[in-house]
Write a structure and sequence with these properties.
The chain has about 700 residues and is an alpha+beta fold. The protein is built from 13 helices and 41 strands. The structure holds zinc ion (ZN).
Length: about 700
């Protein structure tokens, strides 16, 4: 399986995932598979038939089908054959001489699927919301891993699917839509794939369907009536991004692209369609964030599967969608996105949770996301800035030409980048793929000296052994303009010398966040993510806590800190406080436990005020994450004005990971910000 993805319900800019289950490589060659299913929503059931043609000479056959399926009949060329069905595997021996295209195997079966669909799922990292397959009156989702049809070990060379459902219930799946009609109380559709990949998923619902065409690509929307008005916005965006990515990577690999609404809030990218929950589709920013991410997965993750160990596709798609679209809007947005990736890694990946990028398979928590998506994206950023745009995108196009409808590995990327640039990039990439963490650079021994015509600034960049080798940007701010220099860093100490004609001011290391490195504590702002990434968090219930202990514990759980110890303020002794990150419910009586509040934030007896706006109870919630000066620790204040406010806003806080100051009132976020971080070890001031 490649990575699944999900979104929380309301307020996050999440990236999705390629949601296709992969078939294995073993087993006999399958020339063709036809699947035909009738959905029966009132009994959560389906009745199916599948006809499969194996290559001549095939003997033993194994098909995966859901454990609870009932098999009515298995025939070869119309005659019943013996079979066994146990543990979700249907096995049989094909009669010799048969099994070619004119002697296909046919399986008739019934199954029911009714995974409970939560109406308001909790925030979390489970990509499927626990739903692998459900056939309901509201909609149908049959994921590739659920065994809703007999799945051969190898992906067939050709595949088709016919879906029948009660009138108005439109089915949608992989491939080209050959036909679609409603007659005699039944809605039918027929789908065909010229280049099948992975295992089929099927959706159905009371969709309003709209079609458009972009060259050879059909673009379709399958939206519930409540969201049907959004169709043209998504169809326009699909055309725009399919064109952009087609120009960058080469032809779009599938016959159609569809935006399909789900009846629970997933975000899946399947081969040839994207499945988004209705609440997600309505969020205004999705069309230019998660949506292009899923479209990029059409090439990376779906068209080309992840092979060879190590999931490269989330890092690459994060880079080519989430990041690249920002960079194209403005260099500043690109720089801020890169910096945020570094902040996320430093905040969310404590040493015990780190692992080499090479071992990333799918995200299961904030740390694995910061590694697989964030560090992965930065590796592609470093390769691109090292070899330049022409060589970088030429390599991506070459991988598409060579590997489409198959799979690619990290090594295939190393080889393609090396070929297109003429430099062996394997050693450079391997250090990021095979080692944990990254370099922690420090500037040392920096001095300036007057010389004829200007100043010479010398010094060293230090890192811990064994050191990473990379091109490190340095910027010297000087009277009359900045001087930029790129230093080839390797080993524990690399010396440099920069000449400037104007008087030097500040020397900055990697000022635009162009390389992957572990930020120094001074560069990392205190944010919600600092709480998520803490390995030494203690919750403190003060007398002023209006949330109630249960809501406070819910908050901790939503920040992946459900295991943190919770004390009353009276139980907290000073020495203990000094060794931990603290999160207070309500302001502590001993205010010295809390760092000074940011400018413009004031607590009062019955409420709080931010920038002159007072939030009186009972509605309103303030959440602050602050650095404890000189300690490397953080302290957070969770200040809801009532239990009801706590209940209402607690589930939202986790979605604001990069912020350190949040205000909620009137049901919505009213303010978000972060106290600016400093320069830490990445800057040296040469003159007062
Ligand atoms: Zn993704």
């Amino acid at each position: 399986m490649t990575t699944f993805s999900l979104w929380g319900l309301l307020v996050l800019v999440a990236v999705g995932g390629a949601g296709a289950a992969q078939a294995g490589d073993g087993g006999p060659v399958v020339l063709q598979q036809e699947v035909s299913v009738t959905l029966i929503p009132e009994s959560h059931a389906l009745a199916g038939t599948s006809t499969i043609s194996f290559a001549a000479g095939t003997g033993r056959v194994e098909l995966g089908l859901c454990v609870a399926a009932r098999i009515d009949e298995v025939t070869v060329a119309g005659r019943g054959v013996p079979f066994s069905f146990a543990g979700g595997i249907l096995s049989l021996e094909l009669p010799p001489g048969g099994a070619a295209a004119d002697h296909p195997l046919t399986v008739s079966y019934r199954a029911s699927f009714n995974d409970p669909v939560a109406s308001s799922p909790a925030a979390g990292e489970d990509p499927s919301y626990g739903v692998n397959a459900a056939i309901t009156g509201r909609g149908t989702f049959l994921g590739g891993g659920s065994g809703w049809y007999p799945v051969p070990q190898q992906t067939p060379k050709r595949r088709s699917l016919r879906v029948a459902a009660p009138a108005g219930m439109e089915g949608v799946s992989f491939g080209r839509r050959v036909s679609r009609e409603t007659a005699g109380g039944v809605t039918r559709s027929h789908w065909e794939e010229a280049h099948p990949v992975s295992v089929l998923s099927l959706c159905a619902g009371p969709y309003q369907v709209e079609d458009r065409r972009l060259g050879a690509i059909e673009i379709q929307s399958y939206l519930y009536p409540e969201n049907a008005a959004l169709a043209s916005r998504y169809l326009d965006a699909a055309a725009k991004y399919l064109k952009l990515y087609g120009d960058l990577f080469g032809p779009y690999p599938f016959e159609k692209f569809a935006i399909v609404e789900n009846f629970f809030p997933t975000g899946y990218g399947f081969p040839s369609f994207t499945l988004l929950g209705g609440s997600v589709i309505r969020l205004p920013f999705i069309v230019d964030t998660s949506f292009p991410h899923e479209i990029a997965h059409s090439w990376w993750g779906n068209g080309i599967g992840v092979g060879g160990g190590g999931n490269w596709c989330e890092g690459l798609v994060t880079y080519l969608a989430d990041y690249l679209l920002k960079e194209r809007r403005s260099p500043e947005e690109g720089r801020e996105y890169r910096r945020q990736l570094l902040v996320d890694f430093a905040s969310l990946v404590p040493p015990g949770a780190d692992f080499p990028l090479r071992r990333f398979e799918s995200r299961s928590d904030p740390a694995s996301r910061a590694i697989g998506y964030g560090k992965g994206a930065m590796v592609f950023q470093m390769v691109r800035s090292r070899i330049g745009d022409p060589a970088f995108f030429a390599a991506l196009r070459e991988i598409c030409r060579r590997h489409m409808y198959g799979s690619a590995s990290w090594e295939d990327f190393e080889r393609a980048f090396s070929r297109s640039s003429g430099e062996d990039l394997a050693p450079f990439m391997d250090q990021w793929l095979q080692r944990t963490g990254g370099p922690r650079f420090r500037l040392a021994e920096v001095a300036s000296r007057r010389e004829p015509g200007g100043w010479s600034v010398t010094g060293s960049v230090l890192q811990d052994a064994p050191g990473f080798s990379l091109e490190l940007p340095l910027r010297l701010e000087a009277a009359g303009g900045a001087v930029t220099s790129t230093l080839s860093v390797s080993g524990e100490r690399t010396s440099f010398s920069i000449f400037s004609s104007g008087a030097p001011g500040r020397l900055l290391l990697d000022p635009d966040a162009e390389v992957f490195r572990i930020l120094s504590p001074g560069e990392i702002p205190a944010t919600v993510n600092s709480i998520k990434g803490s390995t030494r968090l203690v919750g403190v219930l003060t007398e002023g806590c209006r949330a109630g202990e249960a809501n406070f514990r819910d908050l901790l759980a939503s920040l992946t800190q459900g295991g943190a110890r919770v004390l009353r303020e009276a139980e907290l002794d000073r020495s203990q406080a000094g060794g931990h990150d603290l999160i207070f419910c309500g302001a502590p009586r001993d205010r010295s436990l809390l760092p000074p509040l940011p400018d413009g934030v004031e607590l009062s007896g019955s409420g709080f005020s931010v920038q002159g706006v007072t939030y009186p109870d009972p509605d309103g919630l303030l959440f602050l994450v602050l650095k404890v000066p000189g300690s490397g620790r953080v302290a957070a204040l969770f200040q809801p004005l009532s239990e009801a406010a706590a209940r209402q806003y607690v589930p939202k806080i986790t979605h604001y990971g990069k912020y350190g100051q949040l205000v909620f009132a009137g049901g919505v976020n009213r303010g978000k910000g972060t106290v600016a971080s400093g320069e830490g070890a990445a800057a040296v001031r040469l003159q007062p």
